[in-house]
Design brief:
Largest sheet: 8 strands, mixed
Structural class: alpha+beta
Strand content: 25-35%
Bound molecules: 8-demethyl-8-dimethylamino-flavin-adenine-dinucleotide, P-hydroxybenzoic acid
CATH class of the domain at 2-44 and 101-178 and 269-349: Alpha Beta
Shape: globular
Number of strands: 19
CATH topology of the domain at 2-44 and 101-178 and 269-349: FAD/NAD(P)-binding domain
Distance between the termini: 35 Å
């Protein structure tokens, strides 16, 4: 068996890359180690940049997003009980973001893939990549107990942070940059109306909190927690009490508690691997980088990565020249580092670090005080939050 491109991973980056390449007449196979239901059960991102929305529309996965996505023209930063609105629309000359869950993006891209007839193999075990340092790479895996092997021209590693793609690159060929934060986020999904029409990012002495949503009847909340805490350490009543303590009184009063339909703890990390190309293997999305979720950038970076990668691959297959492949890594990394900076900055401003000195606490206070008085400072936040162009 042979395909032009084998894509490892059917998360948002693998599925979107598959759609962009299919549209250009390039033949792809997607290999995913989990089942479709498992992939859809992971509750993750919620905020889409305009560029991501445009890409989803362009591949034909925008119809439900356009009907059900919530356009947000601003969000609030809440610091020590004081609220500050970041007016995205006014500060960026008309841009906004769209609140639409990653689960729904994935569901729409899965349906598009099925309708296109392009193949996806779920529950693929022991996925292994071979010979990507030559012009004849191969991918092997086990399906229903049978060993299978696929020849291809290109392997796209879209298999997330713990995937096999980056792990297969010799350590000497890869440089990695990392910051692991000494806390995590406890996330709760509940079928209750959100406490506000816009997102609230709250910095508080007791720790960070985020009020987000999936619809006007489904809320997504997060609180900063210790890394040794589990969903079981946070029964619902404790969670709702702690959330309210970290918000300004007005927002706290509007929180409607209800039973959690999902509760999970996610660690926070900044990570970048360089470069993103090794011969015929290309890394994209969380396989290549991680941002802490505070800037809402992870899924959006996955989208810009696969946009750049699809352009390189379309030129490669169209013109038949390998030089088209050279541009991808540098183009993608340029945007990745800017999103890393913004996510690190938002995380540092709004979280409580056990080890921070009195000086560092005052720096957080001063940063917020500056945002309050400076439209330039707020415009910088807005420009990054709506997404730098790609
Ligand atoms: P994914 O989604 O991890 O998908 C990778 C897929 O590869 C499969 N896989 C393999 N398949 C075959 N063989 C192997 N050996 C394999 N190993 C793994 C996996 O099963 C999986 O299906 O990576 P992708 O596609 O790059 O997408 C990245 C995004 O999922 C991620 O960046 C975002 O979720 C990050 N993120 C957010 N991003 C935003 O843009 N806006 C947000 O508001 C936002 N909020 C968040 C977030 C991430 C969070 N967590 C839990 C990390 C909030 C949270 C809490
Ligand atoms: C979410 O709704 O899950 C969400 C929103 C904004 C973030 C992170 C997560 O920054």
């Amino acid at each position: 068996m042979r395909h032009q491109v084998v894509i490892i991973g059917a998360g948002p980056s693998g599925l979107l890359l598959g759609a962009l390449l299919h549209q250009a007449g390039i033949d792809t196979l997607i290999l995913e180690q989990r089942s479709p239901d498992y992939v859809l059960s992971r509750i993750r991102a919620g905020v889409l940049e305009q560029g991501t929305v445009n890409l989803l529309r362009r591949v034909g996965a925008g119809a439900r997003l356009d009907r059900e996505g919530l356009v947000h023209e601003g969000f609030a930063i809440n610091f020590a009980g004081e609220a500050l609105r970041i007016d995205l629309k006014a500060l960026t000359g008309g841009s906004s973001v769209t609140v639409y869950g990653q689960t729904e993006v994935t569901r729409d891209l899965m349906a598009l893939r099925v309708a296109s007839g392009a193949p996806t193999i779920y529950d693929a075990e022991a996925v292994t990549i071979h010979d990507f340092d030559r012009d004849t790479p191969r991918v092997s895996f086990v399906q229903d107990g049978q060993h299978r092997e696929i020849a291809c021209d290109i392997i796209a590693g879209c298999d997330g942070f713990h995937g096999v793609s980056r792990a297969s690159v010799p350590e000497t060929a890869l440089r990695t940059f990392e910051r692991v934060y000494p806390f995590g986020w406890l996330g709760v999904l509940a079928d209750v109306p959100p406490c506000a029409h816009e997102l609230i990012y709250a910095g508080h002495d007791r720790g960070f909190a985020l009020c987000s949503m999936r619809s006007m009847t489904r809320s997504r909340y997060y609180i900063q927690c210790r890394l040794d805490e589990t969903p079981e350490s946070w029964p619902d009543t404790l969670f709702w009490d702690e959330l309210r303590r970290r918000l300004d009184p007005e927002a706290a009063a509007r929180v409607v508690p209800g039973p959690a339909i999902e509760k999970s703890v996610a660690p926070l990390r900044s990570f970048v691997a360089e470069p993103l190309r090794f011969g015929r293997l290309f890394l994209a999305g969380d396989a290549a980088h991680i941002v802490p979720p505070t800037g809402a950038k992870g899924l959006n970076l996955a989208a810009s990565d696969v946009h750049y990668l699809s352009e390189a691959l379309i030129a490669f297959f169209g013109e038949g020249t390998a030089s088209a492949l050279d541009t991808y890594s540098a183009r993608a990394l340029d945007r990745i580092w800017k999103a890393e900076r913004f996510s690190w900055w938002m995380t540092t401003l709004l979280h409580r670090f056990e080890t921070s000195s009195p000086f560092e606490r005052r720096m957080q206070d001063a940063e917020f005080a500056y945002l309050r008085i400076s439209q330039h400072a707020r415009a910088t936040v807005a420009e990054n939050y709506v997404g730098l162009p790609f």
